């Protein structure tokens, strides 16, 4: 069934495929005809254990996760990882790449645990680019990067190599493009951007990094406890994991990560081309670092900003207001957002341009707003 609702460009929680929502809705009432809701079953039941293990297998299959990496399902959002990572791995120094709002939040938490060095920052231009990182070998416990900067609309396409474990916040571009897991030692992502509903955080971690933890930690802050209990040490976010499983099945049946990546490139190209063509708008991010997931742009004429938001809202577009630190507009093009929605936004921008372009004296406006 096609998406029959609004064109949802929201940054997160974000759009999910209509078929996934419908299956999830029916499971809330009667799951797999067992006369119980998915919300009522024990997380220790064989039924749910098969859900969590199948979700793990789908993650492994879709991202080609090697044997010596562990997939964990946790809670507390990506934000909890900001502190768990330094708590677990920072012994002498943690390196951070400062590329925006969420990178900053990760740095803030690391400061509680030890020496933190910012190896490069794009704060000088309100984070509209990815700073150049000279790859070299250095002495530190890890380098932390944010692969996609959800708020600023920039994305990293070349991974730095500092000769230390690479840790990546992939919350907003996981499953959107092919990656080589071997390039990373730990990847984490809040589910609600491209994987499923809010409530679950996925961690993919190299066993060697896990084994480097050499101190006792409180259970809920100890990755080893999650590993040793197959992410079932305490009650996991059952519904979020279940819907993520449905969403990953949808992804698998729709070309997998390489298939969706082609779609995502197509969607992003279409929208950026219109931003570059349309005289009323301009893009925020440096062209080489433009995000395929979160497209940020401005109205050239500030008075057009609210007008365009209203104009687009009337055409069923929601979630395109930019975050307050950046302003302007942000259209998030996550996996489940269709090409048709992007085409609709492009058409809306074109209509707005015709409406707002100065008319020759005496000419009548043909479009009624
Ligand atoms: C949304 C987001 C976060 C915060 O995630 P929570 O699950 O709300 O803690 C962190 N990093 C990035 C890149 C994000 O997009």
From TrEMBL:
Domain spans labelled Aminotransferase class V: 8-345
Gene Ontology CC, one term: cytoplasm
Gene Ontology terms describing biological process: L-serine biosynthetic process; pyridoxine biosynthetic process
Residues involved in L-glutamate binding: 44
Main localization, broad class: cytoplasm
GO MF annotations in UniProt: O-phospho-L-serine:2-oxoglutarate aminotransferase activity; pyridoxal phosphate binding
Reported function: Catalyzes the reversible conversion of 3-phosphohydroxypyruvate to phosphoserine and of 3-hydroxy-2-oxo-4-phosphonooxybutanoate to phosphohydroxythreonine.
Subunit: Homodimer.
Subcellular localization, as worded in the UniProt entry: Cytoplasm
Keywords: Amino-acid biosynthesis, Aminotransferase, Cytoplasm, Pyridoxal phosphate, Pyridoxine biosynthesis, Serine biosynthesis, Transferase
PROSITE patterns in alphabetical order: AA_TRANSFER_CLASS_5 (PS00595)
Enzyme Commission code: 2.6.1.52
Cofactor: pyridoxal 5'-phosphate
SUPFAM superfamilies linked: PLP-dependent transferases
Protein name per the record: Phosphoserine aminotransferase
């Amino acid at each position: 069934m096609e998406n029959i609702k609004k064109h949802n460009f929201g940054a997160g929680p974000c759009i999910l495929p209509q078929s996934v929502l419908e299956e999830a809705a029916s499971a809330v009432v009667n799951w797999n005809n067992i006369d119980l809701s998915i919300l009522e079953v024990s997380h220790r039941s064989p039924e749910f254990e098969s859900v969590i293990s199948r979700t793990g297998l789908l993650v492994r299959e879709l991202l080609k996760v090697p044997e010596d990496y562990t997939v964990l399902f946790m809670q507390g959002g990506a934000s909890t990882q900001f502190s768990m990572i330094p708590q677990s791995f920072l012994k002498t120094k943690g390196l951070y790449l400062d590329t925006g709002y969420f990178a900053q939040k990760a740095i803030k938490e690391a400061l509680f645990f030890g020496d933190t060095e910012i190896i490069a920052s794009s704060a000088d231009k309100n984070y509209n680019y990815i700073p150049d990182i000279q790859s070299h070998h250095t002495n530190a416990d890890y380098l932390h990067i944010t692969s996609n900067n959800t708020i600023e609309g920039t994305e990293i396409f070349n991974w730095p190599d500092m000769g230390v474990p690479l840790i990546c916040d992939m919350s907003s571009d996981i499953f959107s493009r092919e990656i080589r897991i071997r390039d990373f030692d730990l990847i984490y992502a809040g589910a609600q951007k491209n994987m499923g509903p809010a409530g679950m955080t996925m961690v993919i971690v190299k066993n060697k990094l896990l084994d480097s933890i050499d101190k006792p930690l409180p259970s809920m802050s100890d990755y080893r406890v999650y590993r040793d209990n197959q992410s079932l040490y305490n009650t996991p976010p059952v519904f979020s994991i279940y819907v993520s499983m449905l969403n990953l099945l949808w992804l698998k049946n729709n070309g997998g990560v390489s298939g969706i990546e082609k779609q995502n490139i197509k969607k992003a190209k279409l929208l950026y081309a219109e931003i570059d063509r349309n005289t009323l708008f301009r893009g925020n991010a440096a062209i080489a670092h433009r995000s395929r997931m979160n497209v940020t742009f401005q109205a050239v004429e500030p008075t057009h900003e609210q007008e365009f938001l209203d104009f687009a809202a009337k055409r069923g577009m929601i979630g395109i207001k930019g975050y307050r630190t950046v302003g302007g507009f942000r259209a998030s093009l996550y996996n489940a957002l269709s090409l048709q929605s992007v085409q609709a936004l492009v058409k809306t921008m074109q209509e707005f341009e015709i409406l707002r372009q100065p008319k020759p004296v005496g000419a009548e406006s043909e479009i009624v707003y």
